Amino acid sequence: MHLDDDLAAAVGRAWTDTEPWAFVTDLTALGSRMAAGEGEARAADLVADAFREAGLDRVRQEPFDAPEWRRGETTLRLTAPGDREFEAIALPYCPSGEVSGELVDVGYGTPAEIDDVDVDGKVAVASTTTPGDSRFVHRMEKFGAAAEAGAEAFVFVNHVPGQLPPTGSLTFGEEAVVPAVGVSSETGAWLTEYAGEGGAVELSVDAETVPGESRNVLAHVGPRTDEYVLAVAHYDAHDIAEGALDNGCGVATLLVAARVLAAADLDIGVRVAAVGCEETGLLGSEHLAETTDLDMVKAVVNVDGAGRFRDLVAMTHTSDATAAVAERVGAETRQPVRVREEPHPFSDQWPFVRRGTAALQLHSDSGERGRGWGHTHADTRDKVDDRCIREHGVLAALMVRELADDGTEVPVLDPYELEEAFRDADFEPGMRAAGLWPADWE
């Protein structure tokens, strides 16, 4: 791969740059970055400063209205057999309230498993994972299926041990219909055992959803052209942890890429966006898509999950053009880049993909199914390996540069092929549960 002297020097600097670690340190030291809250606003200021220090121009914050879910106390108490209390945390958009009911184990919480048992008036207990030989069933689909079947409440059991109750949004932007909480793997083992003995629990949740404000942090690098590439990463995180992996690593990777791109001779401009409220419904990227003339966007690169683990994954969402770019950069740099062509709706590329914009989601793979430390108290800075951030930032920059090249043609997505791909990947049930299935795909 040919790099001119300035770009080669920027890539070399990235190899030993200490700024990514300093940025992750500052970001995780802020505390909660919960969507539309005060911590997210502080994080937006930090990101804006980092954009300026990276050499980007036209740095600004663009506010938008967003619901703010506020977490209060949660109590989960076994009432039969015996009397004991377990640690539990409410999931975002969980309503306040008190419920009681018999425990019922629904296994992995797949719709088929929920159909096989009677959950009406009961408290459904489900694992965060799904069997390795089947499609991954998203949390929202499990919750939606249980609520539709009449469950009084839903308990989400982490499959990763370590006394780590998981969190994660129940809906995309609106209060859920019944309470739902996360519990640790160890607590889940007790609850499923008690479920087999006719066990019952009382659940009390204090939470509220109020009008709030979030913001996207926008910047620009390269020439000012009518057409541009859009590079995004979300900077919000769940309030129970530091959000180092999800998505501190991703926004730090975007910053590395931006610093490299600032030294590149680009044919068209690159718009850089750190978006808010991803964890509570892709609200920042949805606002960005709604307020952007997408005819001007050549392609979107979403950095969500990159920088966490050693090998980069490029998810291409049916676009042959973005797949070719990822494969070419991987081959020419002799870096392992695994290209996955199947689509994926649960990240910030989705508001653009469903409108026909070609995209890449840059992720990384631990080899394990599920989120690992993500969405738990354990998502902390000590899990970060900033070598991954620096390397993936360089690779992201080179992919963006290829997409910004006048010689790289990137057709818009074919809506019929896109719909077929989502149906073939069996995403329809989960997307319907999350309210993501497009009306024109009915």
Features:
single chain, 442 residues, alpha/beta, Aminopeptidase, 2 domains, 13 helices, 25% strand
What order do the helices and strands come in, and which of them pair?
Layout: H1 5-16, H2 19-28, H3 38-53, E1 57-80, E2 84-86, E3 89-90, E4 97-105, H4 111-115, E5 123-127, H5 139-148, E6 153-157, E7 180-183, H6 185-195, E8 200-221, E9 228-234, H7 244-261, E10 269-275, H8 283-290, E11 297-303, E12 312-315, H9 320-333, E13 337-340, H10 350-353, E14 359-364, H11 386-403, H12 415-424, H13 428-433
Parallel strand pairs: 4-5, 5-6, 6-7, 9-10, 9-11, 11-14, 12-13
Antiparallel strand pairs: 1-2, 1-8, 3-7, 4-8, 8-10, 12-14
Describe this protein's structure.
By secondary structure, the chain is of the alpha/beta class. Helix content is 32%, strand content 25%. It has 13 helices and 14 strands. Strands 1, 2, 3, 4, 5, 6, 7, 8, 9, 10, 11, 12, 13 and 14 form a 14-stranded mixed β-sheet that branches. It is globular, with a radius of gyration of 22 Å. The model has no long low-confidence stretch (mean pLDDT 95).
